[in-house]
Design goal:
two-stranded antiparallel ribbon, two-stranded antiparallel sheet, 4 strands, alpha+beta, 2 helices
């Protein structure tokens, strides 16, 4: 399980799972994040999120449609 935050200024000092925990998607038992994608608005709020089961691919068509809706 690999967590790759896309947030600018991310530093390696952040503990394992900290970013996923902040977004509420860290699975303590498994030790990794669930498969989730987020769009954060200019005010730093989560505008929308999509979640998939671990092992299932993300539906990029759904993500593209959501991004178009967001403008």
């Amino acid at each position: 399980c690999v967590l790759r935050p896309a947030a600018p200024g991310y530093q390696r000092q952040v503990s394992h799972g900290a970013v996923a925990s902040a977004y509420g998607v860290f699975d303590e038992e498994e030790g990794c994040a669930s498969r989730s994608s987020f769009v954060v608005d200019r005010e730093g709020r989560v505008a929308w999120a999509l979640h998939s089961e671990r092992g299932d691919p993300r539906d990029l068509d759904v993500q593209a449609a959501r991004l178009k809706q967001a403008g």
